Amino acid sequence: MEKGKDEPEFDRIFQNAPAKEPERQYYFIEQAKKIVAKQNKALGRRQKMCCVTFGCQMNARDSEKLRGILENIGFEKTEEEEDADFIIYNTCTVRENANQKVYGRLGYLHSLKKKRPSLMIALCGCMMQEPEVVEKLKKSYRFVNLVFGTHNIYKLAELMAQVLANPQDMVIDIWKDTDRIVENLPVDRKYSFKSGVNIMFGCNNFCSYCIVPYVRGRERSRKPEEILAEIRRLAADGVREIMLLGQNVNSYGKNLEHPMTFAELLEQVSAVEGVDRIRFMTSHPKDLSDELIRVMASHPNICPHLHLPVQSGSSRILKEMNRRYTKEQYLALVGRIRKAMPDISLTTDIIVGFPGETEEDFQETLDVVEKVRYDSAFTFIYSRRTGTPAAAMENQVPENVVKDRFDRLLNRVQDIAREQSARFEGRTMDVLVESVNEQDSSLVTGRLANNLVVHFPGDASLIGKIVPVHLDRCQGFYYLGSPAAS
Ligand code: 5AD
Ligand code: SF4
């Protein structure tokens, strides 16, 4: 995007901006539209933007918002960084190597910028909330035009106006924390038939290994009426599957003016006409209520899937992690869930090599894996995340010991996941079709309500439809099926 001093008087643009949100952002979107239209005209083509996402579902959803604003102000989407006039990296910082990955790619962005000085580069997301990162960018990566954090994603159009007004400077806008939630801005959904919906932002749990509470701020919930209105709009637009998103959805609603529980919200979401599947993540085991189990079990459009991160099977390590449940409490919770929903699919996150983890502690983790029999598990090697209490703990586990435990855990988790996946073989179940199969275009690929992947004969006309499929054969972690006569 061309930066120029001869653009409309930026002083006037900023002076006339309304103070109130979301009106202020609508105003900046309109102003940015005019500037970009003028630039596009001068170039004789539409400028392109490329938004690259690192990390979790929350970031993926934030990127849909960023793309929504950029498309709205006149950019065309591209997946190719080489073709882009505007590149934005939405970063993650949960593990130390996530940061290294971004620094690595900044070198490449610099080479692109040298070839094309008009290229605009923006960095946002969790990594930018770390003061050391911003210092490093200011010192060694001056070619970056815009740096902002996790709290002001919605402000992108305004920030771009600032960049255009100050072409020589690196515009930096990082907020420490905020209560602000700005509603009703444009969103570019990746899929037409399914969508994430944020129900809350931030986290109050401070697990001792985790940086998220520091970079995403304190917990704040969206109002239920805003959430339901968004879901009704999505349903009217043809969306069949909704994923409710929050760092810990089970503590939803505590800070609202009229507090409500997540189970109550879920019940209201499940009543929205046209929504066939509702998922949610992530659930902290300490906050998962019996009321939620009851609501899940009694509403067929709530998917029989729970992502329930255990992190460790050792009660001693769990205490050090500040997880606030014991192994026994976790297993008892799983028992209650399975009693109410015998077919439910359970998935988890596990960290190996937390400071002080002994072989006995690790055996406790393996024991939980054996007892719960997860449908899948994300396994992580503990990363000493600067800024977290665990990083300062003295008894860090040697790398070779952690690696050995990690390999043993992964093998066991995968074997069990294969066995678990096969338990539906021979049944006919509903599949929401997501795409034409990439390897074999005579097949389509979709998901069961429990999130397992199914490939079966079909064509693009099925995308976004829910169809009954006979699950012929389980191949490891996915099924090959055939359309069932309905
Ligand atoms: N090291 C390894 N894994 C981590 N996670 C969060 N912080 C760390 C860390 N410092 C994992 C947790 C969490 C998932 C999103 O990332 O398992 O549930
Ligand atoms: Fe991190 Fe724990 Fe919050 Fe999850 S619940 S985001 S692991 S602090």
Number of helices: 14
Straight-line distance between termini: 53 Å
Largest sheet, described in full? 6 strands, parallel
Strand-residue fraction? 15-25%
Task: Sum up the overall morphology in one term.
Answer: globular
List segments where confidence is low: pLDDT < 50 over at least 5 consecutive residues. Answer: none
What strand order characterises the main sheet? 2-1-3-4-5-6
Percent range of helical residues? 25-40%
Number of strands: 19
Brief summary:
The chain has 14 helices and 19 strands. It is α/β, with parallel strands linked by helices. Iron/sulfur cluster binds next to helix 7.
Write up this protein.
This protein has 14 helices and 19 strands. By secondary structure, the protein is an alpha/beta fold. The strands form five sheets. The protein has a six-stranded parallel β-sheet with strand order 2-1-3-4-5-6, sandwiched between helices. The protein has a five-stranded mixed barrel with strand order 15-16-17-19-18. The protein has a three-stranded parallel β-sheet with strand order 7-10-11, sandwiched between helices. Helix 2 crosses helix 6, helix 9 runs parallel beside helix 10 and helix 13 runs parallel beside helix 14. The chain is globular. The structure holds 5'-deoxyadenosine and iron/sulfur cluster. The site of iron/sulfur cluster has 10 residues, from helix 7.
